């Protein structure tokens, strides 16, 4: 006796859901397309596109550390600590990335002294 009731309620739920998507489907697809475009644009503009230069410049060092090329020692130290903690090889980070972070810090330290 309860089986026909469950089947009836399930069919009603499917019908109501289908009706909703039929009425609002175009709006949902527009919204999802717009949202996915914003997300993909935001992710791609945050990071520097391109490889490392052969000889690191002050500009590239600033891009690696995420600081302005005319930054202070305290901001440089904070940015360096934050990045090296996240990318240290002993904690599963890449030795190459850690070396580039250290090289960027050295570039700034030579210019600040």
Say how many strands there are: 0
Query: SSE order in H/E notation?
Result: HHHH
Beta-strand percentage?
Answer: under 5%
Question: Uncertain regions: pLDDT < 50 for 5+ in a row?
Answer: none
Query: Treating each run of at least 4 consecutive H or I residues as one helix, how many helices?
Result: 4
Helix content: over 70%
Question: What value does the Rg take, in angstroms?
Answer: 26 Å
| N→C terminal distance | 86 Å
Structural class: mainly alpha
Shape: elongated
Mean pLDDT reading: 83
Largest sheet: none
Write out key terms for the chains shown.
113 residues, mainly alpha, 4 helices
Helix/strand layout:
Layout: H1 2-46, H2 58-65, H3 73-87, H4 95-112
Helix pairs in contact: 2-4, 3-4
Describe it.
By secondary structure, the chain is mainly alpha-helical. It has helices at 2-46, 58-65, 73-87, 95-112. Helix 2 crosses helix 4 (95-112) and helix 3 (73-87) packs antiparallel against helix 4 (95-112). The longest helix is centred in the N-terminal third of the chain and has 45 residues, at 2-46.
Report a brief summary of the structure.
With 113 residues, the protein is mainly alpha-helical. The chain has four helices and no strands. The protein starts with a helix and ends with a helix.
């Amino acid at each position: 006796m309860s089986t026909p009731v469950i089947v009836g309620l399930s069919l009603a739920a499917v019908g109501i859901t289908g009706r909703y998507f039929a009425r609002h489907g175009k709006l949902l697809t527009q919204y999802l397309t717009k949202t996915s475009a914003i997300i993909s644009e935001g992710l791609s503009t945050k990071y520097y596109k391109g490889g490392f230069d052969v000889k690191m410049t002050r500009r590239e060092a600033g891009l690696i550390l995420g600081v302005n090329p005319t930054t202070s020692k305290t901001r440089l130290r904070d940015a360096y600590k934050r990045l090296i903690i996240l990318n240290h090889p002993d904690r599963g980070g890449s030795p190459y990335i850690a070396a580039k972070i250290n090289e960027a810090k050295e570039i700034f330290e030579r210019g600040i002294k």
